[in-house]
Amino acid sequence: MTDVDWDLLSSYAGILSLATISVYSGSYGSLKAPPKPKDQRTDDDDEDDAEDIGDRLSTSDAYMFPLIGSAMLLGLYLIVVYLGSEWINFFLTWYFAVFGVGSVWKCAISISRTLVGARKWKTFAIVKLEILKAKWEILSLSMRLPSLFLFPLAVVPSAIFILYPDTKSAILTNVMALSFAHSVLSFGKIDTFATGCVLLSGLFLYDIWWVFGTEVMVKVATSLDAPIKILWAKSLTFETKRGFTMLGLGDIVVPGMFVALALRYDFNRSKRKAITEPFAKPYFTSALTAYVLGLVTTMTVMHTFKAAQPALLYLSPACILSFFATALARGELKEAWAWSDGPEESKDNKTAAVTNDESPAVAETALTVGSADKDGHSADDREGAEHEGDSDQKMRKRKG
Questions:
Q1: Helix (H) or strand (E) holding 83
Q2: Active-site residue, selected from the candidate residues 49, 191, 251, 381
Q3: pLDDT tens for residues 6-43?
Q4: 207 is catalytic
Q5: Where are the domains of the chain?
């Protein structure tokens, strides 16, 4: 009977926990309450609407995703092979350091708001920063007071990442990578389940080809030194002698977007007016459970065959099947498939648009699971103001 490698199992459990927590928190980060009627709105509601500004990934985008991803991956591979990894790592270090500030800041604000509660958070003063040049608005920021004090804290990981490139710890990599994942899941959203299925299916084939068909994925993943993966030491005491177990950021973000869509659909079905109100989450629970089971399957196969596995090979079918199984069991497949997520308009706004005869405007890299060496190398708010003319003054002019 073989001895149980508790050090290795603890690293699997650590990676599984980080990925699950990231998908769970990111899903709730993408959840926004429906807008109130115009005559009931407050500054707090405008603030909430501003947070919902983000891209919706459409079906046509999903079809292009694997192609764009393949082109980028192949480009990185050619650079690594013919020019070496030094220059691309230098560029990626600065790229992720700059954008990492915003991601870590967003994540820190989300954690702080969750800890103090949404109601308490909205009692803090709003700080506005505007930079104007002549008639041009160069910069306009609006934030709660605690957010301002959190900004210096958000700079620290990026500063360490730049100033001490040879001491990039697993903790630093995880902080930045998980912050990126939270930001993407909060702002980057899938519009329909059809789009989600197309995206997962396309990246399913993408992963199989680039991992099993060529050496491209493994070569790029082991050459790039950037916070695009999460790491956990293969040790109960977090020693790094045996290296790390790793999970690519794409294996969190891509299926995580599908899980987040399921949560938003559950909220939409519940007809709740506030996200703090409890509501049934059958689709979210099913999708999140499928994600966990898919990840466990990935790690089991990897452990059994002692080889890195393309996680989306297991995660994509698991998430897609969870949706169809839940929808069919509840007799809601047609309704769920036809549902589309997007910025909602209040009834008052829609009525006003019809009255004024205006057309309403319609707003619209996966890696592998594997191991890394002991150094960690892998195998907002914007407010607008409407200025309306004084109707009384117009009436006086007409009478005159």
A1: helix 59-83
A2: 251
A3: 889 999 999 999 999 999 999 999 988 665 555 555 55
A4: yes
A5: 6-383
